Amino acid sequence: MDRPLRYEQAYPVQEVFPDLNPANDTTGAPKAPARRKLFGFNRSLPTPKVELGDIRATTMNFRNIHEHGTLLARYLETRKSIFIDRLRWQVCEADGMEYDQYDTPACSWVVLHEFGEILAGVRLLPTTAKCGVYSYMLRDAQRGVLAGIPTDILFFDAPVKSNIWEASRFFVADGVSSTRRLAVQRELFHQMTVVARENGASSILGIVPSVWSRWSRRLGVNASPAGAKFSIDGTVSQSVLFNINSALE
């Protein structure tokens, strides 16, 4: 489903792969006020129409991928170029495309594209999903199912609730210019929250770069950590839980 971009709003964002520092320090669990705060959204940062140009937002799933030609294949090819070719993650690939066990009929892919070029994307999966021994990434890591990801990835038991979804495989393509990158990141986050809420979600769990506190201030997003920092294939990340309702009211 293609979505028109809304330029009159300030779009909060979850950045993808800023400059990462080679650190892996561990923070303690947030206190109660921090847990209640979760995410705050700053609506004072408008996204000018000129920055988004002719970008379109498309939400794909197994029901509608036939409506979008080769978009899914190009999206998975772009994922390969980022997660395998550049970041050197040890994940699956086939025929030039990156994929894993969570790319199932239970997921949705939110993709930003312009004139056939993939600019950004994110994958959404309900925490109630199940495929064989797998459920969703953070829960499977906590259960010790995923090699290379720590089991203490969350400060709490991984939820299994229809109103909590997981976001993974965030990216903004390398070809997005620095002058447009902020606008693209904001739009990706906005479209992600719209799709999640339309599917009944009120909260989203996700993994973000460990330096999120630095870029979140620049983007008007106040985040609360949901787990300790950890490193996978040289990328230092941290789990975050945020409430999406205030972003769309």
Task: Walk me through what this model shows.
- With 249 residues, the protein is α+β, with helices and mostly antiparallel strands.
- The protein has a single domain (2-15, 26-248), classed as Gcn5-related N-acetyltransferase (GNAT) (Aminopeptidase).
- Helix content is 26%, strand content 25%.
- The strands form three sheets. Strands 1-3-6-7-8-9-12-11 form an eight-stranded mixed beta sheet, sandwiched between helices. Strands 2-10 form a two-stranded antiparallel sheet.
- The longest helix has 21 residues, at 178-198.
Largest sheet: 8 strands, mixed
How many helices? The count is 7
CATH topology: Aminopeptidase
Overall residue-averaged pLDDT value: 80
Catalogue the unreliable spans: 6-47
List keywords for this structure.
249 residues, alpha+beta, Aminopeptidase, two-stranded antiparallel ribbon, 12 strands, 25% strand
Element layout with pairings:
Layout: E1 2-3, H1 32-37, E2 40-41, H2 49-52, E3 56-60, H3 71-86, E4 92-94, E5 97-99, E6 108-114, E7 117-126, H4 137-142, E8 164-172, H5 178-198, E9 203-209, H6 212-219, E10 221-222, E11 230-232, E12 235-243, H7 245-248
Parallel strand pairs: 8-9
Antiparallel strand pairs: 1-3, 2-10, 3-6, 4-5, 6-7, 7-8, 9-12, 11-12
